[in-house]
Amino acid sequence: MLSHKTFSHFPSKTHSTLHDLSLQLYTAQQQQWPMLADGVAALQNVQTRSVDCGTFTVRMQYNPKRVVSTGAKVDAASIKERKCFLCVGNLPEEQQGVLYRDRYLVLCNPMPIFREHFTISHIDHIPQSIEEQILVFLALAKDLSPAYSLFYNGPKCGASAPDHMHFQASPAGGIPVEQELPSHLVYASAIGGVSVSTLKQYGRSVIILEGSNVQEMELMFLRLTSAMRRTMKANEEPMMNVIGSYTEGRWKLIVFVRSKHRPNVFFHEGEKKVMISPAAVDVGGLIVTPMEKDFRTTDSTMIASIFREVSVPGETIQRIIESI
Ligand SMILES: [Zn+2]
Question: I need a labelling partner for 30 at 20 to 30 A (CA). Which of 112, 115, 143, 258 fits?
Fold first, then answer.
């Protein structure tokens, strides 16, 4: 089954880069797989608008095709009942991927938010958890650079398949935080060769790790998640979204520290319901909604309120950093 689903391998005999292989896959799959071709065509017509939130800007995207993902039932019972859509045996007939180091498949997302949008899923049905996979995350970020950034949604704060390990990739710089970060960055400390920073006046709670040595980055990330576990009194993986990139020999991990998945307005009935379900891309500053009403009416006050509600308080970030 896996060989039937393998479009190409990385590393490859031709020494092609992972981003070249992924782009070749994207082009070929649009010819072979009508659902992807439709998704890509629909993306060309999506409406976007910018919302000035004072110290930062948010881009809204009205994308009706995302209704499945935004509205996904991710409670344990619903997940158990449905057929896992990331398991190799359940992938659509036409879908193929780049087999990454024999462990992950780089797949085209048929309901894209970005010009190219990949889901990178483990070949086995193992639960979504970044701590055991952080070395893969760092390797992927490097292998996908400079064309793409990589992101991760925790099982309880944005992953629509919390039971199947996966990452996603998007064009580098396509998530607003990637561009806005330098003007909000506040250096906190450095341990070994890894710097720890936060973002000021950004409306969300964020910790950033930057460094050039993979082992040091792995160690620091695990120290960070331990500190989050202690501070947030979490038994399971602390709630987080992570955006990772690799430029000029350095990794950057942008960690959004979350207190909850969906805001209260998501659960309202009728006109009062706001169909915004924040994951990495949304807290990263590109809010995707499948509803035209929410696209038109969501203003800076609503955005600030949603961000505040789903992020841990600023003092928790300080306590985490002190505890690393
Ligand atoms: Zn699965």
Answer: 143
Ligand 1 center from residue 280 Cα (angstroms): 21
- Cα of 3 vs centre of ligand 1, distance in Å, is 17
Range of the domain at 78: 6-262+306-323
The CA–CA distances, whole Å, from 76 to 32, 171, 231, 264, 318 equal: 34, 32, 26, 20, 32
Can you give the CATH number for the domain in which 313 is found? 3.30.428
Residue 289 belongs to some domain of the structure: no
| Model confidence band, residue 263 (pLDDT cutoffs 50, 70, 90) | very high
Tell me the per-residue pLDDT of 21-55, one tens digit each, with 9 for 90 and over: 999 999 999 999 999 999 999 999 899 999 999 99
Q: 260 CA distance to ligand 1 centroid (A)?
A: 24
**pTM (predicted TM-score):** 0.97
Cα 87 to ligand 1 centroid, rounded to whole Å: 4
| Count of the separate structural domains present in the chain | 1
